[in-house]
Structures are given as C-alpha cells and as structure tokens.
Design brief:
disordered C terminus; mainly alpha
Length: 196
C-alpha cells in the first residue's frame, strides 16, 4: 500500500474514495479477526497488532487488501520482547497510549487504522495537523472517532467495519476490487486509482 500511495503522490493525485473505502474495509476484516481470536478453550487471546500502517498492508492480485507483519503483535498475557522504554511500531501511526509506553488493547490498533485512513485521505499523519475541510462529513466523523486520545472513547474494529461497510455501499461504483486488481496489470501505464 505504501508503494501505491507513493506512486499516487508522484503523479500528484489521490486514491479515489471508493478505493480507499475498500482498502480500509478489507483491513478491518483482518483486524477484527485478530482482535476476536480465541484459543482452543474459547478464551479471547487479546491480540494487538501494534504496527498498523500503510507499510504493513498489501493489496493482492485478487484486489483484497490484507494486513501483514504480525511480527510485533502481542497477545494479552503473553511474554513480550519489548523492553521498558522501547517502542515498537511507526510513530506517525502510533496511538498515544502506545507512544507513552502504557498497556495496549485493540483500541491502539483502531487508532493506527484511523491514522492510516487519515494519511490515505489527506496525505498527512494525524500529528501533522491534516486538513479535513475537503473530506466528506462521514469520513471526518469516522476519523475523529478512531483518533480519540482516550482509548475507551474509540470504537471497536468491528464497529468501524460496520461504518466503513456502509460507506463503501454508498460509494459502490461497480466492483471496487477491479480498480485494486488493475494496479498489478496497469500500475506503470495508467493512473488506475483515479479512474474508479
């Protein structure tokens, strides 16, 4: 995804709203599955990815965006290799509680997903004071919910997925995955992400 964003920037364009909605919706599918993962006895594992960013999202040739690199993910109650004072993840996408070294829950990933959406929509991370003026009111409301400083005030990944799915349905212009698939066949030939 970071390569797609970089190419769009070089071409001085942005990803179309339907492509952004599809990417975020697909990311939320993976994030919700990770957050709801249970052990063999049905107990929640409390998995937190801790490094959601465009660098850790791939778009497959099937047009599905997937979260990758669970290398620093942590399951609740499991031993972590992170030492006190050591941060893991990308600061621009990191939840405040993560940057402060506080205990993390799934809400930290929701913040990072919101930061990724912010970057996809504006070209700026939340810490760069992005301009939301040109964004749809629903997108702004979703960003504001995900980027709450208090993790208890953020929605769950499943709640965000419901809102993102509704947004995707509003924007549906046929098959948004087709635009994502096109990136692999025409990536260097045409700006596929502006034609959707």
């Amino acid at each position: 995804l970071s390569k797609v964003i970089r190419t769009a920037s070089q071409r001085q364009t942005k990803l179309s709203p339907v492509v952004v909605a599809r990417i975020v919706y697909d990311m939320l599918g993976g994030l919700t599955a990770a957050h709801e993962l249970k052990d063999g006895d049905g107990n929640a594992l409390g998995v937190v990815h801790r490094d959601i960013s465009p660098h850790n999202v791939i778009v497959g040739v099937d047009g599905i965006a997937r979260i990758t690199d669970f290398g620093i993910a942590k399951a609740e109650g499991r031993i972590s290799s992170t030492k006190t004072g050591q941060l893991k993840g990308k600061l621009a996408y990191m939840a405040p509680e993560q940057a402060e070294g506080k205990p993390l829950g799934p809400a930290a990933d929701v913040y990072a997903l919101g930061a990724t959406l912010c970057f996809l929509q504006t070209g700026d991370a939340p810490s760069e004071n992005p301009d939301f003026a040109e964004l749809d009111a629903e997108v702004v409301a979703l960003l504001e919910a995900c980027l709450q400083n208090d993790p208890a005030q953020r929605p769950t990944a499943a709640e965000v997925a419901t809102r993102a799915g509704a947004r995707l349905a509003q924007l549906d212009e046929g098959d948004p995955r087709q635009g994502l698939r096109t990136c692999f066949t025409l990536f260097k030939k045409v700006p596929w992400y502006t034609t959707l």
